[in-house]
Amino acid sequence: MREYKTIAKAYPRKRPAEERVEDYYPIYHNFEESEANAQASRCLQCPIDLLRGLESEFTFCRTGCPLNNNIPRWLKKTYEHDYLSAFELSNARSPFPEILGRVCPKKGLCESSCTLEKTEYHAVSIGNVEVFLNEKAYEQGAIPDYGQAEGRKFKVAVVGSGPASLSCATFLLRSNIEVELYERENRVGGLLMYGIPNFKLPKSVILRRFEWMKEAGMKVHLSTEVGKDVSLSELQEKFDAVFLGLGVPKGRSADMENEDANGVHQVMTLLTQTQKNIFDHALQKSVLRNKHVVVIGGGDSAMDALRTAIRHKAKSVTCVYRRGEESMPGSRGEVINAKEEGVQFIFNALPKKALVDDEHRVVGLEIMETYTDENKRLQTKPHSVQTLPADSIILALGFEAKHFSFYDELNLAVGRSNTLIVDENKETSHPFIFAGGDVVRGANLVVNAALDGRTAAVAIARKLGVLEDQKLYM
Q1: CB atoms near residue 237 (< 10 Å)
Q2: pLDDT tens digits for the chain (474 residues)?
Q3: Three-class SS of residue 254?
Q4: What 8-state DSSP symbol labels residue 230?
Q5: Residue 460 domain boundaries
Q6: Are residues 243 and 317 in the same domain?
Q7: How far apart are CA 269 and CA 280, in angstroms?
Q8: Residue 386 phi/psi, 5° resolution?
Q9: Best exposed site among 46, 119, 124, 343 by fewest CB in 10 Å?
Q10: Residue 323, CB-side half-sphere exposure with 13 Å CA sphere
Q11: Hey, which residues does 180 pair with through a beta bridge?
C-alpha cells in the first residue's frame, strides 16, 4: 500500500451530459475492480486506533466519519481482494454503506480528514471504494447481518422509513429485537426514496436493503400514517419502545407575493411525484414539459430540482440564488453537473413577486439584484427589478419540522423550530420514546441521521437489557 506518490486520486467516470439528460439512470459509473484496488493502495494506514482517546490536533478518515467507520481496515482488505472481509468491516458500523458511499458529500467528512488531503496528493477516493467493495461482495453472495430472527423477546415500533429509521431498525435487529416499521407512503425509503433523485441514488439499492430486513423478520406497515391510521399512544402501549424518524416534511417559504399561485411548488412535491412517475412508468405525465422553470435556492435540493426539470424536457431551466456562486451551500460537483446539463444560473438575485394571469397561474417571476453591506447583511438594490419568463416556480429553500398533533398526546418536549428535544441517547422527554434524524436536527446529512438511528438503537437495547456490543458494531 502507500502508493499515493505513483497513483493519483481518481474519480468515477461520468456519463456525457447529452446522454444522461435523456434518462434518470445514475450519471456516474461505479469503480471497476482495478480502479478500486488502485485507490485502496494509496491508503497510508494511519495509526488511528493507537491515538484513540489522546488529545490531538490530527484528524483521520475515521475521525472525520460521523459513524467512525473503520475505513483503513476495509481499504486494506479491498487492496488484498478480500471483499467479504472488507464487506463485514464496512457494514459493522454503518447501516447501509453502499448507500452512504453514494450520497455522503465526503467533503468535510472522511475525505477531508484523510491525511493525504493535506498534501499535494489528495485523499483516497473513500466513498467510491466503499460502493465498489459492497457491490462486489453482494456479487459473491454476501448478505448483511441482521441477527437471529428466532427468540426475540422485545419489540420496537419504528415510525418512518428514512435513513434514521432504517439505521435504527438495522441495529435493533442485530441485537435480536423485533422491529415493526410504520410508513405513510406505499413504498419504503422516505428521503432516500423520494428526496434524492434516481440519477444520484438508484432505488433498487434501497429496496434491496429493505428486502433483506424483511427476510430477517422486520414487519412493515405501508400506507399507515401515525396520528391518523394508528395513534402514537397505541404504539407506546403495544411496543417496548418507539423510535420516531419523521423527517422535516415542510418546505420553507420564499416570502414573495403570489406564492400561492398555481405553478408554484415546493421542491419535494416535484421530486416525489417524479419518482412516483418513474415507478409507474408514467413520465409522460410531466407538468414541466415545454415550460419555463425557475428554481429558487442554492443547495443540493435546488440542484436536484434543476436537473430533474431538465429531464422533464422543460423549455428553459434557471436557478435564482440570492448570493454569489461561491456562497452556494450545495456541493460544488452538483453545480457543475447542473451547468453541464444546461441549467442557467442567476446569482445575487432575490425573488420578489410571482407574476400571474387572470386565473392566478404563474406567467413570470420578478427578481431584485442583491448585495452584501458592510455588516455582511443581504440587501436589495433599489430600482433593480427584472422579470424572468416562468410557467413554474420551484421553491428549494430548505425544510422545516412539522408539529404533529400526536406530540401533545404524550407531552413530548418540542424545540422552537418544532424539532423534538432528545438527550444524548436520543430519548425524548417521554420514557422509551426515541427520535433521530432531521426531526431532531433539522434538515441535515443522511450520515448524521444514520448515526442518530444507531445511537437510539444502542440505547434502546441497553435499556431493555439485551445489548450485545459485538453484534452492533466493531
Answers
A1: 8
A2: 788 889 999 999 999 999 999 999 999 999 999 999 999 999 999 887 666 655 556 778 988 999 999 999 999 999 999 999 999 999 999 999 999 999 999 888 999 999 999 899 999 999 999 999 999 999 999 999 998 878 888 999 999 999 999 999 999 999 999 999 999 999 999 999 999 999 999 999 999 999 999 999 999 999 999 999 999 999 999 999 999 999 998 899 999 999 999 999 999 999 999 999 999 988 888 889 999 999 999 999 999 999 999 999 999 999 999 999 999 998 899 999 999 999 999 999 999 999 999 999 999 999 999 999 998 899 999 999 999 999 999 999 999 899 999 999 899 999 988 999 999 999 999 999 999 999 999 999 999 999 999 999 999 999 999 876 545 544
A3: coil
A4: B
A5: 155-249+399-472
A6: no
A7: 16
A8: -125, 155
A9: 119
A10: 13
A11: 157, 219
For 223-336, list the strands marked E by DSSP: 241-244, 250-251, 264-266, 292-296, 316-320
Cα dihedral 115, 118, 122, 125 sign: positive
Closest CA to 11 of 37, 42, 43, 35: 35
Closest CA to 472 of 53, 103, 61, 67: 67
- Locate 381 and state its grid cell: 438594490
Q: Do the beta carbons of residue 471 and residue 175 sit within 8 Å?
A: yes
Are 22 and 134 in the same domain? yes
Whether 5 is in a domain gets the answer no
Q: Is residue 192 part of a domain?
A: yes
Residues 42 and 93 in one domain: yes
Q: Output the nine-digit C-alpha cell for 50.
A: 493507537
**Residue 390 domain-assigned?**
yes
Sequence letter at residue 213: M
Q: Are 354 and 257 in contact (CB under 8 A)?
A: yes
The cell numbers describing 412, all together, are: 413530548
41 and 21 together in one domain: yes
- C-alpha 303, offset from chain centre: 14
Q: CA 416: distance to chain centroid? A: 24
Residue 324 lies in a domain: yes
Among 354, 377, 395, residue at a domain's last position: 395
Q: Measured on CA atoms in the order 85, 90, 93, 95, is the torsion positive or negative?
A: negative
Sign of CA dihedral 276, 279, 280, 282: positive
- Pair (310, 335) in one structural domain: yes
| 211 and 336, same domain (yes or no) | no
For 384-399, b/e burial (b = at least 16 CB within 10 A) is: eeeebebbbbbbbbbb
109 and 46 both lie in a single domain: yes
Task: Please state, in angstroms and rounded to a whole number, the distance separating the CA atoms of residues 357 and 340.
Answer: 33
Rounded-to-integer distance, Cα 31 and Cα 102, Å = 12
Whole-number Å distance between alpha carbons of 128 and 335: 20
Is 297 found in the same domain as 196?
A: no
